[in-house]
Amino acid sequence: MPLDGPVKALALEATRGKKGDAAQARGIYEKVTSMMKYDKNGTGWGRGDALFACDAKRGNCTDFHALIIGMARSQGIPARFAIGFSLPETRGSGEIPGYHCWAELFLKGRGWVPVDSSEAAKAIAKGDLAKKDYYYGHHDENRIQFSRGRNLTLVPAQQAGPLNFFVYPYAEVDGKKHEVVDRTFSFADLNPTTVSAK
Description:
- By secondary structure, this protein is an alpha+beta fold.
- Helix content is 31%, strand content 21%.
- The protein has one domain: C8orf32 fold (Roll).
- The protein is built from 6 helices and 10 strands, in the order ααβαβαββββααββββ.
- The chain is globular.
């Protein structure tokens, strides 16, 4: 994730005139949320490539948040990547179609602050402007975090090199990544009267 070139130029534009890390972080969030479109058409999206996001101005959650992280770090704001799963807002049970990720920015006096620019952009596209403010500094209850970070080495270490991010099952055969791994994710609400503390 580059911290110079177009990523830094965009960060400088987003933070111009803003004093302190809190105002600068909010400026970065606002810039990315307003310029990016959640769009998984074509190719190039989904790798968490900040340069692709700068150029294409579209992608999925990994692209949105790679750009936010790169921009924040270019301005000296610590930032990290978190990934997990979103659960449907409706209760009951069902399938979980895939992963969801977000960024966390470290602000002095506040600590790690979650930002979810891709969910905010999707909400804005639906006309729900209140969610844009909500997703700066808040998580909804419908998510589960699975891991944090990128370029990850597992324990024991995999032989095929670091993982871009870790959310799906990973397997190797003879030291090479094994791509064909069945995976299905689902959820089911439990009845609180049948759950007992152990």
